[in-house]
Amino acid sequence: MKQDNFLKLSLPLIYIVLFLINGCDSNKSKEQEIIGEWKAHWETKADKTMPELNGDNLKMTGLVNFMDNGKVEICAFGYEGCIFSNDTLKNTLNWKLDDTVLRFIDNGDEHGLPYTINKFTSKELHLTLLDDINLTLLRN
Asked: What pTM, to 2 d.p., does this model score?
């Protein structure tokens, strides 16, 4: 009888401990999911004050490579007339991830560029910067 009571009392405790362990690892697994190379697509909305910019000028593609050492390599393929850049940009920054924001942080900058996370899966990320720049990342 005592052994039955012990099992009845210990099973709920085991489930609680397993639940807590999984809950603590959820952020770590999210950070691990982001590691690797992604195809990038930046896009912004047309500005009425700049009618010469059309849909093609408001987009840019590139590659983003998140490394497990906290660094991120960004290569953006700018072009003539592109609102983002007229040339290819390459930069290595730091990255930080929390539940709602992915930050690209330059050395000496404690806040970085805060991209709001709209969608996060292991194959696709949808991010927004300043409510008008959208960044879509697709697993490469």
From this structure: 0.75
pLDDT digits (tens, 9 = 90+) for 8-49: 555 554 555 444 444 554 455 778 899 999 999 999 987 776
| Number of other CB atoms surrounding residue 133 within 10 Å | 17
CA distances from 62 to 34, 52, 74, 85, 123 (A): 16, 23, 7, 12, 16
Query: Number of folded domains in the chain?
Result: 2
The region, left, alpha or beta by phi > 0 then psi within -120 to 50, assigned to residue 131 is left
Cα–Cα distance measured from residue 81 to residue 120, given in angstroms and rounded to the nearest whole number: 31
Using one digit for the tens of pLDDT, what is the confidence trace for 100-111? 999 999 988 888
Q: Smallest Cα–Cα separation from 60: which of 39, 78, 74?
A: 78
Both 107 and 131 in one domain: the answer is yes
